Amino acid sequence: MGAMIDGGAEVRILCEERCGSTDLDVAALAARVGRDYSLIGRRCRCRITPGCAGWNHFYYLHGVFRPLWSDADLARWSSQRLAAMHRQ
Ligand SMILES: [Zn+2]
Fold this sequence. Notes:
- By secondary structure, this protein is of the alpha+beta class.
- The protein has helices spanning about 1-5, 25-35, 70-85, and strands spanning about 10-15, 20-25, 45, 55-60, 65.
- It contains three helices and five strands, in the order αββαβββα.
- A hairpin with a 1-residue loop joins strand 4 (about 55-60) and strand 5.
- The longest helix has 17 residues, at about 70-85.
- The protein is globular.
- The structure holds zinc ion.
């Protein structure tokens, strides 16, 4: 993430439930979790809308938005989601 800050990258958070989007304060997050932290392949519970059950994904804005995850991450997340549904 240090390279992102040095490059002046913007990271946008999008909710998979489409409740909204917000810009991530990369410098503030790095101050908290360290510059070696990577957002690649990460997601978190929705922080955009209180009470929203969606997951937030990160986009890296560098000319264009690039998804910060791989097909493998997507497959892992969707299988987790299926497993969660089956447990209900
Ligand atoms: Zn949401």
